[in-house]
UniProtKB/TrEMBL annotation:
Coiled-coil ranges from the UniProt annotation: 215-266
Region (Disordered): 1-26
Keywords, sorted A to Z: Coiled coil
Name assigned to this protein: Transposase, Ptta/En/Spm, plant
Top-level taxon: Eukaryota
Length: 284
C-alpha cells in the first residue's frame, strides 16, 4: 500500500496495543491482511496446521506493501494474530456459502473468485466428511473463549459456580463491547487473558495454551484496560444520572406549565368579570 509519492505507508504497532493506534494505519493493515488471507493463504481446517513457511510468506507480502518492522517480534506476532483472525473469518464465510446451498451438487457449483474450482471442491470434500463434522462445532470455527468460560462456570439449573466467576464473565463481556471495534480493539484471547490472567502451559477458560508474555508492558497494559473499564462504567453511571435529572427537570417544567396555565385561566376569568362589571356600571 503506497502513497501518491511512491512511498510505502509506515505502520507502527506500539507494544501492548496489538495493532496500530492510528485509524488509517489500522484500517489499511487490516484490509491488506484480509486480502492476503483470501487470496494467498492456504485454507486449513485449523490455523495451527499452517507451516511457519506459509505464515512467513504471507507476512512478506504484507512487508512489500508497507514500511513495517517485522524484525520486531511484537510487531510480527501482532500481524500474524490479525492474519489468523482474517483467515478464520474467511474460512467461516466460505463454509456459510457451502451450508446455505440446497444440496451438495449445488454447493460444488458455487464460484468463489478467490479460489480455483479445485480448491473449492477440496473444501467441500472436507466439510462433507463425517469425521470433519465431528471435530468442529456447529459454526465450523473455534469456540469463543468468553462463551466457553460461561459454559464451564454457569448452568441454567444452578446459575454461576461462584460470584467471582460471574464477575469475571461480566467484566469480559464489558471489555468485549468496548474493545472489539475501533482503533483500540482487542482480540477475544487478549480480553480473557486480561481478566483471568495466564500461566505457563495453561489458558484459563480452555485449559491449554502457550506460555504467556509476563513483561512489565503487559502488566501495564492490563492495568490501563482495567482503569479504562472502570472509567467507562463510571461514565455510564453518570449518563444514567444525567438522564434521570433531565427527566426530573422535564417533569418540573410540565408541572410549572400546568400551574402557569391555571394562573392564566384564573386571570382571564377575573378580567372577564371586571369587564362585565364595568359594562353594567356604565349602563347604570
Amino acid at each position: 500500500m503506497k502513497k501518491a509519492q511512491g512511498r510505502k505507508m509506515k505502520i507502527e504497532i506500539p507494544v501492548g496495543k496489538g495493532r496500530p493506534t492510528k485509524p488509517d494505519q489500522s484500517a489499511k493493515l487490516s484490509n491488506e491482511l484480509g486480502i492476503i488471507a483470501r487470496n494467498f493463504l492456504l485454507l486449513p481446517n485449523k490455523w495451527k496446521e499452517l507451516t511457519r513457511e506459509d505464515k512467513d510468506a504471507a507476512l512478506i507480502r504484507c512487508h512489500e506493501r508497507f514500511e513495517i518492522n517485522l524484525d520486531e517480534h511484537y510487531v510480527k506476532d501482532s500481524c500474524e494474530d490479525i492474519l489468523k483472525n482474517k483467515s478464520r473469518q474467511w474460512h467461516y464465510k466460505l463454509k456459510q456459502l457451502f451450508e446455505n446451498a440446497r444440496s451438495e451438487e449445488e454447493a460444488r457449483k458455487i464460484e468463489v473468485p478467490e479460489l480455483t474450482p479445485e480448491n473449492w471442491n477440496r473444501l467441500c470434500d472436507m466439510w462433507i466428511n463425517p469425521e470433519h463434522k465431528g471435530k468442529t462445532n456447529p459454526e465450523g470455527v473455534e469456540p469463543d473463549r468468553i462463551e466457553f468460560y460461561k459454559h464451564t462456570h454457569y448452568t441454567s439449573e444452578k446459575g454461576w459456580s461462584s460470584l467471582e466467576a460471574e464477575t469475571h464473565y461480566n467484566n469480559m463481556t464489558d471489555l468485549k463491547d468496548l474493545y472489539t471495534s475501533g482503533e483500540s480493539s482487542m482480540t477475544i484471547d487478549e480480553i480473557v487473558d486480561t481478566i483471568l490472567g495466564t500461566k505457563s502451559g495453561y489458558i484459563k477458560g480452555l485449559g491449554y495454551g502457550p506460555k504467556p508474555n509476563t513483561t512489565r508492558s503487559t502488566q501495564r497494559r492490563t492495568a490501563e484496560l482495567e482503569d479504562s473499564l472502570k472509567k467507562a462504567k463510571q461514565e455510564a453511571s453518570q449518563i444514567e444520572d444525567q438522564q434521570s435529572q433531565i427527566q426530573d427537570q422535564q417533569s418540573q417544567i410540565q408541572s410549572l406549565n400546568s400551574q402557569l396555565n391555571t394562573i392564566v385561566a384564573r386571570k382571564r376569568k377575573c378580567l372577564e368579570k371586571c369587564n362585565f362589571f364595568l359594562a353594567h356600571r356604565h349602563q347604570g
